[in-house]
Amino acid sequence: MTVERSAAARHAGRKWAGRAFALVCLACALAGVAMLAILLAGIVREGGGRLSIDFLNRFPSRFPDRAGIKSALYGTLWLMGFTALFSVPVGIGAAVYLEEYASRNWLTRVIQINISNLAGVPSVVYGILGLALFVRAMALQRSILAGALTMALLVLPMIIIAAQEALRAVPPSVREASYALGATRWQTVRSQVLPVAMPGIMTGIILALSRAIGETAPLLMISGLTYVAFVPGSPLDDFTVLPIQIYNWASRPQAGFHQNAAAAIVVLLVVLLALNLGAILLRNRYQKRVKW
User: Is residue 44 in a domain?
Assistant: First the structure.
């Protein structure tokens, strides 16, 4: 009887400990959401009055009430498009090779360790690399192409790691069934493994590009301009992006520029959410196509 009571007491204690842990986790999540809501409310309150069609269609100016983000907005879209173009195929291809084709030897382990280490390198280091390699050695100057290549290097380790994890999550039975039906390794990877892993890969791409769209330090290192009074027309044109424009306005003493910076932050968040929404819809489409 004593043993049964002791076991019941331990079970009740574990039950209450589990509930307490769940409440602590919930409190932490709510605290993070509350802080984010407070920040967003402050930004919208400060910059909401500046949001207008004219603000989106005007170029930067010395006068706060005449300044806009047209060049920065278009530069951001150009930069993110080319960053995705360079990083996504290379990242997925590298992950497929490392998981499906590469031998499990010391060289593969060294490559994997280096990729994991590169994912934690500060972004300013990639800016220095981009300045030395793309701007000076390859003579791409302050072009969109130089910025996109630099940002692609920044997000490439994240995409590779996320894609590898998604490929590892595919059950071995999927590959074995495909091989049993006579499919080659490439046919198995292309038609069976990648469709199943694509939702996880898309999640990693969303996180990587979400980091890239808000980075300022690498672009400042490659001499990204703070004043551009034209819309880029080719990948070799000079450019500016929303984070640089926000940094420029926030560093000025006039209150009008601070309001412009807050309004530009709201636009940047909308662009980020729109890009993420498109990627999420594409991910959900792959999820619906996968049937077990």
Answer: no
